[in-house]
Inverse folding.
């Protein structure tokens, strides 16, 4: 077995695409030792989903089965382990878990805002739009759910509670990082929407809208 | 000087858990190691951004602050130097840019592979101890060295099974020696990994250490491990797992002293990546390392 064949075999075994026993036989290694690597490889993805999507996962039955199914559907292809978890919202949507998918989308945007490469700092003069802003539509009240359940409560697991109904019209969610590094999220309100619209049209927002958005940290001014 | 590199003293990895407290202990910590993958990443939010960008937020603030207080070294986990896939030039360029920004003294990664055939495993997979693997890794280390202006060190990893199969052509120490000497790279000697491998594969760690090209060791890693029990054919086997989640095992400290007797003072890093304790506990563990350094070499701080 040359190096390429060896690596192909180990990839297949550790991802669960090939049986452990046959892989161990091909590699002439004890299967229980080879299984250490399978546990590591699959455990890393499980751990990153737990880190990125604690609330979305808490709304799912058969959590471990769901993670294993996700791994088969979206085998990691990027060195950044966080990116291995990026398709999880779309995966949940594809499987019909629409509310959990909304939550996962929101949780992913919170992570992206936390690590956004921009420096969030008010300009010396005038004002500027916070560069970390992400705006997206959601058909479930994920923002309110995350406000109510900032961390999964083991005594009241969300999985045992009824999921909110689909909204008639989408909510617009706003996620951004403040100068303090804290990540904020909210449903886009009317003054903020007007201020953002004004900026998009190269206009100056109304004073009241400007004050409101500066207080939120959406627009930056000293 | 080790492999042309200064003795930096004792250090720890820059971890989020210590972003608020690290700065009160600058006198007790001589240098910090930055995990390359924690400091650069593909842009998540801007399709027009460069392929790799530095982190924003608290990580960036901590990196910028660390450059003011400590000498910095870079350590990676995803270079995949032993992979049959091509090296990623964008990642190498990003690592170099990061190294420049942090004024990193050197950068290191593991003598293993973590991706192959376009699959990312996010773990350190073993190489066979074969001439094919030696030649392959040597070519790639030379390519890495050509692209960088700072020294590159290879770390000896743990391995839980020997994948050399029936065609094992050399022992592990010879494998490391040939790669280091033929590629002319430095070594990051992980003494805990030596201990874990020696127990798991039943060899004498001191004989192993004595067979390494210790003149190339520019940095040492020390860490803790756990013992786990695995069922196999109706028997239970105890296997050590390199978890970086515990204090340093006393036998690992003895091996560390064995190395220092042959090398003199070497920049030494305490690795603690899981169940990370508070900074006071980290500093206390650094003091244990420092005592050994002082006892064996008569020097525990950089000059």
């Amino acid at each position: 077995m040359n190096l390429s064949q060896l690596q192909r075999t180990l990839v297949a075994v550790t991802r669960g695409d090939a049986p452990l026993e046959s892989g161990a036989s091909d590699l002439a290694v004890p299967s229980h030792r080879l299984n250490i690597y399978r546990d590591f490889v699959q455990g890393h993805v499980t751990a990153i989903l737990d880190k990125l999507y604690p609330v979305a996962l808490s709304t799912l039955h058969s959590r471990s089965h769901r993670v294993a199914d996700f791994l088969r559907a979206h085998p990691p292809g990027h060195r950044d382990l966080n990116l291995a978890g990026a398709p999880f919202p779309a995966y949940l949507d594809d499987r019909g878990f629409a509310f959990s998918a909304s939550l996962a989308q929101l949780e992913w945007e919170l992570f992206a805002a936390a690590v956004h490469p921009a420096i969030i700092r008010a300009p010396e003069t005038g004002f500027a739009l916070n560069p970390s802003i992400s705006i997206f539509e959601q058909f479930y009240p994920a923002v309110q759910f995350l406000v109510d359940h900032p961390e999964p409560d083991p005594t009241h697991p969300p999985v045992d509670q009824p999921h909110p109904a689909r909204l008639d019209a989408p909510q617009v969610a706003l996620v951004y990082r403040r100068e303090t590094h804290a990540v904020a999220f909210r449903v886009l309100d009317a003054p903020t929407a007007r201020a953002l619209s004004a900026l998009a049209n190269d206009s100056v927002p109304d004073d009241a809208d400007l004050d409101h958005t500066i207080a939120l940290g959406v627009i930056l001014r000293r | 000087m080790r492999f042309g590199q200064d003795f930096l003293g004792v250090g720890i990895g820059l971890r989020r858990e210590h972003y608020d407290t690290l700065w009160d202990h600058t006198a007790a910590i001589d240098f910090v190691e930055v995990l390359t993958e924690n400091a650069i990443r593909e842009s998540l939010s801007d399709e027009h951004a460069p392929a790799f960008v530095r982190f924003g937020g608290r990580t960036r603030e901590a990196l910028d602050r660390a450059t003011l207080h400590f000498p910095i070294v870079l350590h990676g986990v995803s270079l995949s130097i032993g992979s049959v896939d091509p090296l990623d030039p964008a990642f190498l360029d990003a690592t170099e840019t990061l190294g420049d920004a942090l004024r990193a003294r050197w950068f290191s990664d593991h003598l293993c592979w973590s991706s192959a055939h376009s699959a990312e495993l996010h773990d350190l997979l073993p190489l066979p101890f074969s001439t094919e693997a030696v030649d392959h890794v040597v070519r790639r280390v030379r390519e890495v060295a050509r692209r960088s202006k700072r020294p590159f060190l290879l770390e000896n990893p743990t391995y839980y099974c020997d994948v050399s199969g029936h065609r094992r052509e050399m022992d592990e120490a010879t494998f490391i020696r040939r790669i280091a000497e033929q590629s002319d790279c430095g070594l990051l000697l992980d003494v805990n990994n030596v201990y874990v491998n020696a127990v798991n594969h039943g060899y004498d760690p001191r004989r192993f250490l004595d067979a390494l090209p210790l003149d190339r060791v520019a940095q040492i890693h020390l860490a803790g491990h756990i013992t786990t029990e695995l069922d196999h054919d109706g028997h239970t086997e105890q296997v050590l797992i390199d978890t970086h989640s515990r204090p340093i095992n006393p036998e690992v400290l003895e091996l560390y002293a064995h190395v220092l007797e042959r090398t003199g003072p070497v920049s030494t890093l305490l690795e603690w990546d899981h169940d990370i304790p508070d900074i006071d506990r980290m500093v206390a563990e650094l003091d244990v390392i420092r005592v050994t350094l002082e006892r064996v070499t008569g020097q525990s701080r950089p000059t």
